[in-house]
Amino acid sequence: MESNAVRQRARIDPTGRYTVQFHFDTAAGGGAKASRPVRMAQPHAGPGYGMHFPVKPGTEVLLGFIDGDPDRPIILGAIPNESAPSPVTASNARVNQIRTVSGIVVELDDYV
């Protein structure tokens, strides 16, 4: 994800789209070489309602392409990795969890 250095948040345009930098794009220029605006799939969306958990700069995302068209990318989801691990691991595998960057946690324990 590309960022706005002043606020350290991912760059989001007025319609909620992001710019991404591809791992294979090794040219100098950073943001100047970023993608066109890319929408992010959401679990709930419609006219005047929906939900959106903004991703942070440096988040690794999975892209898909509508009808296989490389000019129509869409963010399918955020991918945990070594530098940004999943909040649910082997140590707490029975919980369902939402954890915000400020530390707010919503946790559902499915212990049966």
From TrEMBL:
The chain positions of domain Gp5/Type VI secretion system Vgr protein OB-fold read 13-78
Q: What Gene3D superfamilies does UniProt report for this protein, alphabetically?
A: Gp5 N-terminal domain (2.40.50.230)
Q: Which InterPro entries match?
A: Gp5/Vgr_OB (IPR006531), Vgr_OB-fold_dom_sf (IPR037026)
Parts forming coiled coils: none
| The name this protein goes by in its record | Gp5/Type VI secretion system Vgr protein OB-fold domain-containing protein
Source lineage: Bacteria, Pseudomonadati, Myxococcota, Polyangia, Polyangiales
